[in-house]
Amino acid sequence: MAVSLAGCGVVDGIGGDGTKASPTKGDDITVGLLLPEKENSRYERFDYPIIKETVEKLTSHKGTVTYANAQQDAAKQNDQLQQMVDDKVDVILVDAVDSKAIAAGVKKAKDAGIPVIAYDRLAQGPIDAYISFDNELVGEVQGKALLQAVQDESGSATSKKIIMMNGSPTDPNAAQFKAGAMSELKDKVVIAKTYDTTDWNPVNAKANMEKAIAAVGLDNIAGVYSANDGLAGAVIDVLKTAGVSKVPPVTGQDAELNAVQRIVKGDQYMSVYKSYPQEASAAAEMAVAKVQGRSIEFDALTRDKVDSPTNKGIPAQLVPVVDLTKDNLDDTVIQDGIYTVKQICTAAYKAACNAAGLK
Question: Could you tell me which residues come within 8 angstroms of residue 148 by beta carbon, excluding any fewer than 6 positions away?
Answer without folding.
Answer: none
